[in-house]
TrEMBL record:
This is Nicotianamine synthase. The gene is LOC104789480. It is an enzyme of class 2 (transferase). PROSITE patterns: NAS. Synthesizes nicotianamine, a polyamine which serves as a sensor for the physiological iron status within the plant, and/or might be involved in the transport of iron.
Length: 178
């Protein structure tokens, strides 16, 4: 038997969204005791962000690319080094629904994986790690910054790869440096 003791803190600026989410998990006694809902603007969170190993950023946090980048910059400033940022983005015509976040928009993060679905799923997924800890140093960050033009073109590569093989393209730090 696997025991999951993960705790989830959900931050939303909309109190009614938190209320609906809390009702959705209330039927699962175990999960509902491990989920906490906070009504707050993510831009008001600073020191508390350092306490999380993983931060999930919803697709509609930041209604346009400029706002979304501002939130990502705030997270980069306040998350702990080595923490994982998983965010939802969009790709191709799905950008009409959600802002697109490219790997080059994740300054201060090492992009680990990008997935653009080719089925009815709308959101792309970008997984990255906050630089500055666990062996990830400024030298890697500087090298990734220099390669940002290449990283920004990865969406073109993903279109080709997803059409041919329907695979997840991995971007590990070691791979980016070669």
């Amino acid at each position: 038997m696997v025991v999951d003791d993960s705790i989830f803190h959900n931050f939303d600026i909309d109190a009614s969204a938190n209320s609906v989410a809390a009702r959705l998990v209330s039927s699962d006694t175990d999960l509902s005791q491990r989920m906490f809902f906070h009504t707050v603007d993510v831009m008001d969170l600073t020191e508390s962000l350092k306490g999380f190993d993983v931060v999930f950023l919803a697709a509609l946090v930041g209604m346009d690319k400029k706002e979304k980048i501002k939130v990502i910059e705030h997270l980069e400033k306040h998350m702990s080094p080595g923490a994982v940022l998983m965010l939802r983005s969009a790709h191709g015509p799905r950008a009409f629904l959600y802002p697109i976040v490219e790997p080059c928009d994740l300054q201060g993060f090492q992009v680990l994986s990008v997935y653009h679905p080719t089925d009815e799923v709308i959101n792309s997924i970008v997984i990255s790690r906050k630089l500055g800890g666990d062996g990830i140093n400024g030298d890697v960050h500087d090298h990734i910054d220099q390669a940002s033009d290449l990283a920004c073109n990865c969406s073109k590569i993903h279109v080709i790869m997803n059409k041919k093989k329907n695979i997840i393209e991995e971007f590990a730090g070691e791979e980016q440096l070669t």
